[in-house]
Amino acid sequence: MSGENEKILAKQRLTEFLETKKMRKTPERFKILDVIYSQSGFFDAESLKKNLDLDYPVSLATIYNALELFLQCNLIIRHTFGLRVKYEKTPVGSSHYYQICMQCGNYKSFTDLKLKKSISLRTFSAFNITNHSLYFYGICKKCGQKNKKQNR
Ligand SMILES: [Zn+2]
């Protein structure tokens, strides 16, 4: 799916959600969604604010408010990597894997077709899987080397 298409669908979903819940369709909410769907990768409220400040400054409170809303309509997902909270556009039909260092909190996402294939063999009788995600916790190479040095 192209980025533009994805963005249009996201806006539609937000519009429907706001109408159903009888909430206001404020331009801020749509601008924030637009910025989120124009980027890729992880983000948080602060990085979002930095992006918005260039041409459409909004308060952090407004951003947090919008993020809560987008979580409710499943437009974004929230990750907790150690103590850090990061958000990401809801992956469409794909499966994502994450590595998180328990020591420094660094994280990265990756894809693994072999793993994806073997997990997709798992089926449930009363549950239809659309996608999945998996978190691997451990110690990154950098921290591992640091620990080795300290133990010498
Ligand atoms: Zn680390």
- Order of helices and strands, N to C? HHHHEEEEHEH
CATH topology of the largest domain: Arc Repressor Mutant, subunit A
Please give the radius of gyration in angstroms. 18 Å
CATH superfamily of the largest domain: Winged helix-like DNA-binding domain superfamily/Winged helix DNA-binding domain
Per DSSP E runs of 2 or more residues, the count of β-strands stands at: 5
In the CATH scheme, the class of the largest domain would be: Mainly Alpha
Q: How far do the termini sit from each other?
A: 52 Å
Layout of strands and helices, then pairs:
Blueprint: H1 3-20, H2 27-38, H3 45-53, H4 60-72, E1 76-81, E2 84-89, E3 96-101, E4 107-110, H5 113-120, E5 133-138, H6 141-150
Parallel strand pairs: 3-5
Antiparallel strand pairs: 1-2, 3-4
Helix pairs in contact: 1-2, 2-4, 3-4
The structure holds zinc ion.
The site of zinc ion (ZN) has 7 residues, from helix 6.
Overview of the structural elements:
The chain has 152 residues and is α+β, with helices and mostly antiparallel strands. It folds into two domains: 3-88, Orthogonal Bundle (Arc Repressor Mutant, subunit A), CATH 1.10.10; 94-150, Dna Ligase, domain 1 (2-Layer Sandwich). Helices cover 46% and strands 18% of the residues. It is built from six helices and five strands, in the order ααααββββαβα. The protein has helices spanning 3-20, 27-38, 45-53, 60-72, 113-120, 141-150, and strands at 76-81, 84-89, 96-101, 107-110, 133-138. Strands 4-3-5 form a three-stranded mixed beta sheet, with no helix packed on it. Strand 1 (76-81) and strand 2 (84-89) form a beta hairpin. Helix 1 runs antiparallel to helix 2 (27-38), helix 2 (27-38) packs across helix 4 and helix 3 crosses helix 4 (60-72). The longest helix has 18 residues, at 3-20. The chain is globular, with a radius of gyration of 18 Å. The termini are far apart. Residues 101, 103-104, 106, 140, 142-143 line the site of zinc ion.
